Amino acid sequence: MRTSRGVEIPDDCLQWTFARAAGAGGQHVNKTASKATLTVPTSELRGSPTKVARVRERLGESIVITCQESRSQWRNRQTCVERLVDIVDEAATPPPAPRRATKPSRGAVERRIASKKKHGDKKAGRRGDW
Question: Which of 2, 64, 68, 116 is 20 to 30 A from 100 in CA distance terms?
Fold first, then answer.
């Protein structure tokens, strides 16, 4: 499968384990192994070297995703795959551009100084002989 950022996740590197889920579900939850755990080693990811390096740096050696929201093992597997794609896409995004320092505009400086002058005049008007 391929993410929107261009990182490829080979199907043969997806390692699935299943267990009985916790929580509500009655007898069904006691009989079926619907909880899905997906483990993907980041060393198996393919794509642009910079994107793959970013993913490895941010997520470590392996990605582990667990889902037990649904009563269906198939739906839990689908949810795990969706989360995996989202996590890998987010980790592959480049860092934001650094902020460029700017100076306040001349008008902003003039407004600030005029406000300070007005405030000072107001306080000066309060001073007087008692």
Answer: 116
